[in-house]
Amino acid sequence: MAFFMGTVYSKELLQDTSFHVILPHDGRRYEGKGNPKTLILLHGLSDSAATWVRRTSIERYAERYDLAVIMPEVHRSWYQDMVYGINAYKFITEEVLNLAANMFHVSTKKEDVLIAGLSMGGYGALRCALENPEKFGYCGAFSGAYDLKQLIQIASSPDGKDLLAGMVEDYGAIFGEKTQIPKEVTVKHIIKNAGDLKERLPKVYMMCGTEDILYPQTCEAKKLCETYLKEFIYEEWSGHHEWDMWDTAIEKMLQYFLGHGRRDFE
Predict the structure, then answer these.
(1) Containing H/E element for 151?
(2) Is 27 helix (H, G, I), strand (E, B) or coil?
(3) In this structure, what are the phi and psi dihedrals at residue 32, rounded to the nearest 5 degrees?
(4) How do 203-209 and 232-237 pair as beta strands?
(5) Best CA proximity match to 13, nearest among 111, 108, 82
(6) First and final CA of the chain: distance in angstroms?
(7) Three-state DSSP state, 249
(8) What pLDDT digit, counting tens, does each position of 66-99 carry?
(9) Is 20 left (phi over 0), alpha (psi -120 to 50) or beta?
């Protein structure tokens, strides 16, 4: 495998931005194998584009499944097009795959494209995938931060200021003067709205640790996914909001979608 760290100019972000890339480099195109499948891997609130590489064995998993991995940077945007900030949602859904295909010759066919993320990135991956089913064939949502309203309430409380430091300020930058989170960016609306496209939706793998602070949010999202999505796998096991969980989760997801997992979608 090859690993690249660099910057690329984004028309949506209006600035240079970090791009971390893992690529097969076995001359596959010259051997008739075609361009590699692509995983867009999204970071969490306090992370960066580099954190998946620093904290997990993603490069080893990419080699195992012959996979290109693109890790973009969106800061603390919650994968939204911010009122006072960057167009993170458009960057991920409209620009990242084109940049990756043009620079690294990865496959952008729906059946070859996965998107996944943790915490803030779990929400981002689920939203991007369900709202753009023509682009993403698979989605992984790990310990997702699905209820932004509840997180803002926690961040505003004395007990939550250390845990979710900066989220109140993030809200203002993302949503401006709105006193309520717009309905269209809530997970409940996203999943219900996606249900009308059931036959076209990506396959979704969702997980969370049973001791995770976001476990109740995941349970609510799970119920919606079971109701509205056709191809959905959910797993939980003992653990907190931590990298040991997500390192296991990313391999499990790849096993289900690209390898011989312990059970298949029905």
Answers:
(1) helix 148-156
(2) coil
(3) 80, 15
(4) parallel
(5) 82
(6) 33
(7) helix
(8) 999 999 999 999 999 999 999 999 999 999 999 9
(9) beta
Give pLDDT tens digits for 205-234.
999 999 999 999 999 999 999 999 999 999
Positive/negative CA dihedral, 217, 146, 258, 129: positive
Q: Which tokens hold the place of 37?
A: 């499948």
SS3 content of the chain, % helix, strand, coil (to 5): 45, 20, 35
Residues of the chain with pLDDT under 70: 26-32, 159-161, 163, 198, 260-266
Torsion angle of alpha carbons 73, 69, 165, 187, nearest 10°? 100
Residues in the chain: 266
Rounded Cα–Cα distance for residues 206 and 188 (Å): 15
Order the strands of the 232-237 sheet from edge to edge: 2-10, 15-23, 67-72, 37-42, 113-118, 138-142, 203-209, 232-237
Contacts of 205 (CB under 8 A, 6+ apart): 116, 138, 139, 140, 141, 232, 233, 234, 235, 252, 253, 256, 257
Helix axis angle for 187-194 and 215-228, nearest 10°, is: 20
